[in-house]
Amino acid sequence: MPHKSKLLAGKPISPEPIDSKTSIAELVDKSFLAYNGARMREGCQLFTQKMLAEYVTVGLSLTGALTPAGLGMSCIIPLIEHGFVDWIVSTGANVYHDTHFALGLSMHQGTFKADDVILRKEGVVRIYDIFFDYDVLLSTDAFYRKVIEAPEFQRRMSTAEFHYLIGKYVNEREKALGLNKKSLVSTAYLAGVPIFTSSPGDSSIGMNVAAKALEGNNLRIDVSADVNESAALVLDAKRTGGKSAVLIMGGGSPKNFLLQTEPQIQEVLGIDEKGHDYYLQFTDARIDTGGLSGATPSEAVSWGKVDPEQLPDTVTCYCDATIALPILTAYALSTHKPRQLKKLYHKREELLKKLRDEYLENKEQ
């Protein structure tokens, strides 16, 4: 027998045939054996076997507009309710379009082959292959403008606080309409999961806030509070003997905001830290264009975003989030018991004080 290389120690590729009784977990574990299928399997196993340990704080970033496709209801709400997501960074679009459902407004399956000139004449708006009436935008705009007239909005606040207050009103509207589990913003409000928007002016919500400012409304989004509050969540996870995990859907500004918590702690505040412990990303972005969306976890190490000792616990799967997120959610819910909710929103001021105290102590030395 010729010498057998140690490199051939991996399991032989010899899967059982898929049949009508194959579960999602069996499909992933036994049939996703190579290429991005294998990365999907590794990601699912990393998420359930390490990232969902009780002592790990999980941050989720959401790029683009996933909620219009129903992923808020089908995936993100169950993840929140099971304690699998502790804080979120999202585009404003996801929050805005999520609100449609809680207001009883509908979005419809359409086609990307439609004539957009005809759609415009018919008053139909298109997000690739999703159609909805133009009045959906107008009704949601009117809801936001009315809500932010309330006294509790007449001050500076972080996007986490803004979304928490909005979540209260959205939850009340859901209940009044007899709807259930339609809004991730409402669910996050009930679960105490903070939602940050990295570019608060870059959405219809920000546009309506700007419009009300012209009328003298005193709501101001405090982006500095966002940076410090999010960093405080990560630092506390580490200082209390736990670990920090990032679950990245797509890339863009939410990905950077999620990851920059560590450079904020280390580079800017001068606090001794090593980086996030677990990194799981699903993206369709290429790495060779130099964009942040396609940047690898090993590149993130050079910025201090990821602990270099934890690189083996990082996975990047090149897959559309609309495919990956349902698979990951189904796998996690079928293989891992629910975790206790951390309710980090209600600890914001306490954690921010800890961050400030450690920063000022280090600065004096």
Q: Can you describe what's shown?
A:
- The protein has one domain (32-364): Deoxyhypusine Synthase (3-Layer(aba) Sandwich).
- By secondary structure, the protein is of the alpha/beta class.
- The mean pLDDT is 95.
- The chain contains 15 helices and eleven strands.
State the fourth-level CATH superfamily.
Deoxyhypusine synthase
**Helix/strand order, N-terminal first:** HHEHEHEHEEHEHHEHEHEHHEHEHH
Shape summary: globular
Strand order of the largest sheet: 7-2-1-9-10-11
Which key phrases capture this entry?
alpha/beta, six-stranded parallel beta sheet, globular, 365 residues, Deoxyhypusine Synthase, 15 helices, three-stranded antiparallel beta sheet
Structural topology:
Blueprint: H1 24-31, H2 35-51, E1 56-62, H3 71-81, E2 87-90, H4 92-102, E3 108-109, H5 116-122, E4 124-127, E5 130-133, H6 134-147, E6 156-157, H7 159-177, H8 184-191, E7 195-197, H9 204-214, E8 220-221, H10 223-239, E9 243-249, H11 252-259, H12 261-268, E10 278-283, H13 297-302, E11 314-318, H14 321-335, H15 348-364
Parallel strand pairs: 1-2, 1-9, 2-7, 6-8, 9-10, 10-11
Antiparallel strand pairs: 3-5, 4-5
